[in-house]
Amino acid sequence: MNDGRVDGSGADGRPLDVAVVGLGFGADFVPLYADHPHVGRVGLVDSSPERLAAVGDRYGITDRYTRLDDVLADDRWDAVHILAPVAFHAEYSLAVLRAGKHCACAVPMATELDDLRAIVAAQRESGKNYMMMETSAYGREYLLAEEMYRAGELGALTLYRGYHIQNLDGYPDYWQGYPPMKYITHALSPLLALTGSTVADVTALGSARMSEERTAHFGNPFPTEVGLFRLRDSDVVADITMSFFQIARSYVEGFSVYGDQRSLEWSGVPDEPMRMFELLPLGPQGRGRSARETELEPPDFASRLPEALARYVRKYTLTPADGGPPVTKVAGHGGSHPYLVHEFVSSIVERRAPAIDAATSAAWTAPGICAHESALRDGERVPVPTF
């Protein structure tokens, strides 16, 4: 772990002090911040004293809080990374920005359009950075697709398919009945990142009907939602399937991107190779063109990271600070976590907007909100606002 400070890391000549809020999923990000060469102090925030103690002892973190308000009132903290449940994302993001601190937040940015607008406005008023930490735009599968697309190897994009299927039975109550499309960013963002475009409008339908006991919290009647998304600055249509309930399928999350020269399909299974299809010349019979299929192992692109973070893109071993036995952990979401941390920290240090800034975050989140509205309106086309 990085116990010292690095001169000149922050905008005022000192390293950044970062607080991590929510230590369920958020615990995985603690060692990344602790090891980042431009981060000094790391703080922990969680409403559970037991979890706070366990994570703090494991990583040797002494700055611990049970209330976010205490971090916001303390001028020592430069930035906050929110990994609390979705229902708190908008409220906490607004509080962080209004307190004059940089804000990173797990997906989604928010679940209502008005909250997206409020966060974008708060970011502009504060002058601080906001970044939605979208894993799918930094996973090794996306990085490979991006490299090939930028090099012209895919040709012109012609179709995109994204999907996120995950059974949420047994998850906390605040997930039960959650509208699947309102968690769309993992499935849709790779296309928006590739093209630099945004969604103009969407037509979506709900598939099947939610069981009665699941509809109370959100009033959502659909366990599965399927949508077609039309882009503003591209002729590509995105075909997205989102499903969280009543489907006999193990967890899968991924995308396929098709071009007029080559295409990439990803099974959505971590560490499985991608399949590349290369269109072959028209055969002698002149009836259709076949494609050559090969498997591609996405590289880690770890050279893009500081040396201290490179090991976190694959399975890694941690030695707990409390003297416990070494723990081996799997790098989640295609090894994207260190890239996200590095981009957020670097954007602050370099005094620039992050790659997924507030306006981009809103543009990547809003289509799912509009898609759910379209499904509730039986497939009516719904325009997506700009930010």
UniProtKB/TrEMBL annotation:
GO terms for molecular function: nucleotide binding; oxidoreductase activity. Signal peptide: none annotated. Residues 17-132 form the Gfo/Idh/MocA-like oxidoreductase N-terminal domain. Gene3D superfamilies: Dihydrodipicolinate Reductase, domain 2, NAD(P)-binding Rossmann-like Domain. InterPro entries: Gfo/Idh/MocA-like_OxRdtase_N, Gfo/Idh/MocA_oxidrdct_glycsds, NAD(P)-bd_dom_sf. It comes from the Bacteria. Keywords: Oxidoreductase. Pfam families: GFO_IDH_MocA. PANTHER family: BCDNA.GH03377 (PTHR43818:SF11). This is Dehydrogenase. It comes from Actinopolymorpha pittospori.
